[in-house]
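Example record used in the benchmark description.
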Amino acid sequence: MIIYFIALSFVSLLSGCNAVGFGCGKPSPPSLDELDEFNPPIVFACIFHHKQPEISLYQSDNNDSMSDLLKALDNGKDLSLYFMGFGDKLSVTNGLSYQFCSGWCDVSATNICRIYHSRKIESTSSIVKLRSLIKKALFNRRLEFVSRKVGDFVLDIRNQCKIDKKKKKNKKCIEHMSQINVHGFSLGSHAGAFFCRYMNEKIQEKCPLLIGYDPAELHPWLDQSKYIQKGDAEFVQLIHTSGVLGTRLRIGDVDVSVKYKSSLHFADNHFMGFRIQELSTSKRFAFIANRNGPGSVIKLKNPKEFESIKSKLKKDQCLLGVVNNNVGKFRITITDKDLKA
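Model output (structure tokens):
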């Protein structure tokens, strides 16, 4: 799977109208009513059961497709949403995306839906081209578009649940935000925050858990006051793996600084956030950060070990990927050896 990263370090070198895209005779960004016109549809990539043979794809501009997704989610399970970065080439069968989504679905007993910006992403190695793509997306209010598409769909799920409960007593369905956990990688961290804010605005309910895996540094294209931060959900954990592509702001309930030691000089610290998400949600590894020390990485023989580790955390420790009683700033060092299968 190839991830095309969108949070580019040199954005901080840009300034004024040329960087932001406003003023200087340039057109204004679209209004909320115009978002559909300026933004391509998103794709929901979902797994409802760990034995499902492949990831099912649903496109937001296809009513029949979204109706099918609504029906598929009516299975008595809660929902985990994972907002991806700007682009990802997705393999629906046998690839790592499928394996980790299936594992996450199994150990969490929830429906898993990844939110992609497109079925296909334009491949380019040009930094200038990547800069242009993300600049244009944010100018067209991409984060608001994504959050509203997902949010309105969740409202449809909620409304259908209410209808079903009137017909079938004691039917379990997704009725409250307490049944939805939110994860995000890179740009997706901020998209997840926009989604949580949108839902709180619409129904005055907060997401219980919002985790940002190396939230992208998007200044000056996105005002930093709009970045993912504490208050967006009941508990916000930010996992920082890169001080270049990821933001250096520490504004979560928990902020974990990850130091990745690799024998490869070209090792991608930004992508480490993506790996931590997959390894922790599938409960193959437990990542324990510490306030002062290097923390520890534990390879799990059984997913049940995860809850045991969580219950034994000390006051100066934090477990990545879940709600913790301990808040503040933590650190962890991860090496290639730690992650060997």
